[in-house]
């Protein structure tokens, strides 16, 4: 009997941003879901410190049916052990949340669900949620890894909003938007937020929703962050072969610097929209619906990366236009 893929949410954020508080809220909320949580020994404080044992992977079922898994080994092993116990009827869960450590890069975590065949079939990556501590964001975002956590996110949750004034909050939101134009920014209050902001995000689905922030941005200053967004647009149809050559060359030379990227493209001679997205060097594409009769055939691509070679990318994208 085929299994429905288990949705996975990756929870990221710098030290002290409130991931554990958010997890407690998620586990205790009235949602009727059976949620498994994977955490590891480097978390600043776990769901319950007593869950952290000496075994490489330890699974504990909570009173409400949720499951906590402490990991002292690699993530892939923990995921497979959870599946084995699920299939054997030892535990039950229908969603998974992975709590990254404060200093962790979420990219390798996400890649895990695209590389291993069994994990691809049994889990589906729903989204990356990153918490940002408003009171300490200026300090945290001096670290490239904190910027990467923001750049990789499908949702940005700002905590400790009450500790900063309106001007500081607006400046932070503009900075976050400059780093990641794709991710909506929401405020989380003491770990509480509408569950729709956490679940069924569908951030890794192949669809035409780019969700680009409409927030206007002032020109970047000389001390701009290493991680940034680049949005490209073209009203001219693209040549599929030139586009493929452009993307292959870009991934070969800069794939490790491309955290997330997504596009909706108009291809010459093709009535359907082409949608694609990727993580580092892994990407997929598919044909979407046909363009509407009065719909502008505009190609839009957003790249989020580490010190992006913007002029090189712009030139390569422009060269992909059909002649």
Number of structural domains: 2
**What share of the residues lie within helices?**
25-40%
| Shape category | globular
The CATH superfamily of the largest domain turns out to be P-loop containing nucleotide triphosphate hydrolases
List the secondary-structure elements in sequence, H or E: EHEEEHEHHEHHEHEEHEEEEH
**Sheet with the most strands: spatial strand order:** 3-4-2-5-1-6-7-8
CA-CA gap between termini: 51 Å
Taken as a percent bin, the fraction of beta residues is: 25-35%
Second-tier CATH architecture of the largest domain: 3-Layer(aba) Sandwich
Radius of gyration: 20 Å
In round numbers, the mean pLDDT is 86
Task: Please give the CATH class of the largest domain.
Answer: Alpha Beta
Largest sheet: 8 strands, mixed
Q: Any idea of the CATH topology of the largest domain?
A: Rossmann fold
InterPro entries: CobW-likC_sf, CobW-like_C, CobW/HypB/UreG_nucleotide-bd, P-loop_NTPase, Zinc-reg_GTPase_activator
Function: Zinc chaperone that directly transfers zinc cofactor to target proteins, thereby activating them. Zinc is transferred from the CXCC motif in the GTPase domain to the zinc binding site in target proteins in a process requiring GTP hydrolysis.
Keywords: Chaperone, Hydrolase, Nucleotide-binding
Family: Belongs to the SIMIBI class G3E GTPase family. ZNG1 subfamily.
């Amino acid at each position: 009997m085929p299994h429905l893929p288990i949705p996975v949410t990756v929870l990221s954020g710098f030290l002290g941003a409130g991931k554990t508080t958010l997890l407690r809220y998620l586990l205790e909320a009235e949602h009727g879901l059976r949620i498994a949580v994977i955490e590891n020994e480097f978390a600043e404080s776990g769901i319950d410190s007593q869950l952290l044992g000496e075994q490489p992977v330890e699974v504990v079922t909570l009173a409400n049916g949720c499951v906590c898994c402490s990991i002292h080994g690699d993530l892939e092993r923990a995921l497979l052990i959870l599946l084995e116990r699920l299939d054997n009827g030892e535990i039950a869960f229908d969603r998974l949340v992975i709590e990254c450590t404060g200093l962790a890069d979420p990219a390798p975590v996400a890649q895990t669900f695209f590389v291993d065949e069994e994990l691809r079939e049994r889990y589906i990556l729903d989204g990356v949620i990153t918490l940002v501590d408003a009171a300490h964001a200026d300090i945290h975002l001096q670290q490239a890894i904190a910027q990467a956590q923001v750049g990789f996110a499908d949702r940005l949750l700002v905590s400790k909003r009450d500790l900063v004034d309106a001007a500081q909050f607006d400046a932070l939101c503009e900075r976050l938007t400059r780093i990641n134009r794709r991710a909506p920014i929401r405020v989380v209050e003491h770990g509480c937020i509408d569950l729709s902001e956490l679940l069924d995000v569908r951030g890794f689905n192949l669809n035409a929703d780019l969700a680009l922030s409409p927030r206007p941005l002032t020109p970047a200053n000389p001390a701009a962050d290493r991680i940034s967004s680049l949005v490209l647009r073209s009203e001219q149809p693209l040549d599929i072969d030139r586009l493929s050559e452009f993307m292959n060359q870009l991934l070969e030379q800069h794939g490790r610097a491309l955290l997330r990227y997504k596009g909706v493209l108009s291809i010459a001679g093709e009535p359907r929209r082409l949608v694609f997205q990727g993580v580092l060097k892994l990407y997929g594409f598919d044909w979407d619906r046909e363009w509407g009769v009065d719909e502008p055939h505009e190609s839009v691509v957003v790249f989020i990366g580490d010190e992006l070679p913007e002029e090189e990318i712009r030139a390569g994208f422009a060269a992909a236009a059909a002649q």
